[in-house]
Amino acid sequence: MTAQRDPVLGQIDLPHRYYYREMYLPQLTTGPNGAAWTSDSRSLVYSMSGTLWRQAVDSGKAEQLTAGPGYDYQPDCSPDGRWIVYANYRNDALELWAFDLEKGQSHQLTSGGAVNVEPRFSPDGKRLAFVSTSYNRRFHIFVGDFSGGELTNVRRLTGESRSKLPRFYYSEFDHEISPTWSPDGGELIFVSNRGHMYGTGGFWRMKAEPGSEQREIHYEETAWKARPDFSPDGKRIVYASYLGGQWHQLWVMPSEGGDPIPVSYGDFDNTNPRWSPDGTRIAFISNREGNTSLWVQEVLGGAERAVLAREKRYLKPMGHLSITILDPSGNPTPARVSVTGQDGRAYAPDDAWMHAEDNFVRSESAFESHYFHSSGKAEMTVPTGNIQVEVTKGFEYYVTRETVICSPDARLVIHLKPLQIPTDANSQWASADLHVHMNYGGAYRDTPTNLVAQQAAENLFLVENLVVNKEQRIPDIAYFRTTPDPASTPTHWLLHSQEFHTSYWGHLGLLNLTHNFLLPDYSAYGNTAAASPFPTNAVVADLAHQQQALVGYAHPFDIEVNPASDPTLTGGESLDEALELPVDAALGKVDYVEVLGFSDHRMTASVWYRLLNCGFRLPAGAGSDTMANYASLRGPVGLTRVYASIPKDVTGTAQWFDSLKQGRTFATNGPLLGFTLGGKAAGGELKLPVGENKVTFTSWLRSFVPVDHLEVVCNGRVVRDLKPEGDRQSTDVKSTISISETGWCVLRASSDKPENPVLDDYVYATTSPIYVSVKGSVPKAADDAAFFIAWIDRLVEMTKANRNWDTAAERTSVLQTLDQARQAYVRLLK
Question: 307 — alpha (psi -120 to 50), left (phi > 0) or beta?
Fold first, then answer.
C-alpha cells in the first residue's frame, strides 16, 4: 500500500486510543469544552471551536482571544490576570503556549512534538504543572518555572511505575493526569491508576517536588474525566464522577480524603469543574442539550445558569456561508458535510456536532478531517476567503467537492448525483450498521432522535444501537427495548440491542432480544464478581437464541492468529480478538460475522474463509462500532455497513433480518457489489453435476471512490481478477469460471491505499458466499480443520490454566464445549 492512515497523535504509547483520545484529550467542538476563571471571579476564559474566548459571566458578549494557527484548548489564567496558558494542537502535537493579555501576543512554552495538556498555574503564578508524554510516550506530571511568558527548569514529578495487574483497557505502566494545586501551592492532587486494574484511578496527593511521597486519598473507578479542583479554602475538592450512575455529575469531597457527595444531578454529563477564586461558584461543561455548553453553579443553593455567547467579537474578518444540499428531485436532504477555511481550520454551524476522524494520511493533510451532519441546510460563520466544502451521503451518491469565496457572504447549493446502480423490479438493497453505540462516554449526549438524524445523513435503512458497559456503567441501558425505537421512521429504523462484552472469548452482537437484557453484560473481568470465563459466548448465544435474537461476532480480528506458534493466540497482547468464533461456528451458534468492522478486514477474511472451507455457512454482516456521541472517532455511523436484499414494498425490519440470516447480503465501507453464479445470488446454493462445470457469473461494481481490485474468490483462492478500468468506479462483467469442487464463492473489491472520504484504512467490500455443491465432492478442509484444532487446543490450555472459575462445574462445562467443537473439526480430517 502506497499511503497509510496513521493515528492522530500517534506518539502516545497507550492501548485503546479511541478511549483516551476522546475522553481525555481536548476536542474540537462548536460549543465550549474547557473553562477557567479570571482572577477577579467575574469572567471566564474558555475554548470554543478551537479558539480561546473571554466572557463576563453576567454578559452575553464573548471576545475572541486567539484564532489559530491550529486549535487552542484547556486555558488556565494566571493569578495576576496577565497570562493565559493553553494547549495548542498543530503539527501533529499538542504544545503549551502562553497568551499575554496586555500585549495580545502568544509565546510558545514547550517544544519537541510531545502531547502536553492540562496546564495549571500555581497559586503564586510562578510555576506551571501540566501533563506530558515527553517521557516514554505516556502521561506523567511535570512542573516548570513560569516567568515573563517563558517556561524554564521543567522537571518530571511522577512516574514511571509498572504494574503487574492484568489490565486490559489501560497500560501496564501507571499514569498520572489532571494535576491541581493546593491553595498554598505546596501540594498537588492528581489522578492515577497506580495499584488498580480498572479506570483511570483515584486521587493522590503529594508535595510539588520531584521524588516526594505520593499517597492515595480516595479511590473510585474514574474514566479520564474526573479532573479534581480545589476549593479556595483548601478544604474541599470538586470533581466529575459517574459513581452509582450512568452519567458524570459534579461531586465534592474533603481534600484530605473522605466520602464524596453529589452536588449536581441529571441524565447527562457535567464535567470539567472549576471553582471560582472567590469560592462562590463552580463553572463546568455540560452536554444536557446534546452539544457542549458552559454553565455556572452557585456553591450556596446550587442555582445554575448557562453562559451563552449571544454576541461574538472575532479577531479576523468573518463572513456567512449558507449551504443547501438537494437530492435528485430537488428537495433538501440530510448529508455529511466538511467545511475548511483558507486558514486550514474546520468550521461548522454553531449548533452542529463537530466530528474528527482518528486517523489520517499525513502526506495529504496537515490535520485529520472534520465533518458534521446537516439536515440539508447549514448556516455558519467562516473566515473570508476561499472555503472548501465536501458533501457525502452514504455510498449511493458521488462525493461533491466545491470551492466558494466568502467575501463576506456566500451561498452554495449542492446537487447530489446518484450512482447508476443496477436495479431489480421486485427487490432493493437496504443498508444497516449492526454495531453502533449511541452513548459511550463521549463529549456529546446522543438521543434516539439525533441518532436517527445521523443515520439519515449517512443514508442508512437500519441502525442497531448495541447497549454495552463502559467501565462499571451501561450508558444506554435506559434505552434498551425489544421493539423499534419510537424515533424510527419508515425509511430509517433504530433498534436497541446488546453487545456482550467479554474480551476473553470475543465480543458478540445480540440483535433484537425479545425479553430482557442479559446480565451481567460481560465475563472474565478480573478482580470482579464476573472474573470467571463462564459464561462462554456459546452459553450467551443459547440464551440470546431463546429470545429469538440473532447472534454475531463483532470486530473479529486485527492480527494474524497463529495457533501453532502462539500459545496466547493474540501475541501476548490484550486484544479483542474473536477467539471463540471457531468453536461457536462449529456448534452452529453464529448467525453472522462482522466481516467488516472495527478490525482488519483482510485478517478477518482469512479466518472467515477457513471457516467457510470447513462447510460452515456464515453470512457477511458489518458494523462500524461507532461511538456516535464522540467528537473524535474512527468514523461516522455507517462507516462499515451491510446491505441486504429485501422486497421493494417492505414495511418494518423483519424481512431485512431474515435476509441477513439467509446471507442475502454484501458488506462494505464504500463499493457497492452485485454477484450471481449460475443464476444464484448471495446466500443461495448452486448444485452442479459431478466433474468440471463451466458456470456463468455476473458481477457489477459501483463506487464513489476508486477501487483497485475486483475479484471472484472461490474456496479462498482468487479465480478471476476483473481489473476495474477507467475511473475504477464502475464495472460490469459477465463471464464463466470452472467449478469442480464443493465449496463457496464471493465477489470482493478492495484498494491498495486509503481513499478519502472513506475513513477506513483501505477500501474493502465483499458479498456473502454463494454455496456450491458438486455431486460426489466434499469440502477439502483438512488443512483448515487442523488449523482450528490447534486453535481450540490453545483454548483448552488457557481454560485449564485459568484460576478464576467460580465452580468446578463451570470449568468442566467449558472444556466439554471446546471438546464438542474440536470433534467437529476432527471429523473433517477424515
Answer: beta
User: Three-class SS string for 241-304?
Assistant: ECCCCCCCEEEEEECCCCCCEECCCCCCCEEEEEECCCCCEEEEEEEEECEEEEEEEECCCCCE
Nearest CA to 21 out of 165, 158, 117, 125 is that of: 117
CA 103, chain centre distance (Å) = 41
Q: Please report the DSSP string for 436-468 in residue order.
A: EES-SS-SS---HHHHHHHHHHTT-SEEEEEE-
Respond yes or no on whether the N-terminal peptide bond of residue 533 is cis (omega within 30° of 0): no
Neighbours of 505 (CB within 10 A): 25
Peptide bond into 69 cis (omega under 30): yes
What are the DSSP calls for 156-193, one per residue? E-S---B--S--SSS-SB--EEEEEE-TTSSEEEEEE-
Position 757 pLDDT exceeds 60:
yes
| Buried/exposed 397-413: b ≥16 CB within 10 Å, e otherwise | bbbbeeebebeeebebe
Does 2 have pLDDT greater than 60? no
CB 492 within 8 A of CB 456: yes
pLDDT in tens, 686-723: 999 999 999 999 999 999 999 999 999 999 999 999 98
pTM of the model: 0.97
Report the distance separating Cα 35 and Cα 239, nearest Å: 14
Grid cell listed for 367:
490535520
CA distances from 300 to 149, 252, 382 (A): 37, 13, 41
Tens digit of pLDDT for each residue in 336-389? 999 999 999 999 999 999 999 999 988 888 999 999 999 999 999 999 999 999
| Distance separating alpha carbons of residues 259 and 804, to the nearest angstrom | 31
Residue length, the chain? 830
Half-sphere exposure of 645 (CA within 13 A, CB side): 22
Helix, strand, coil % (nearest 5) of the chain? 10, 40, 50
Instruction: Quote the CA–CA distance of 208 and 187 in Å, as a whole number.
Output: 5
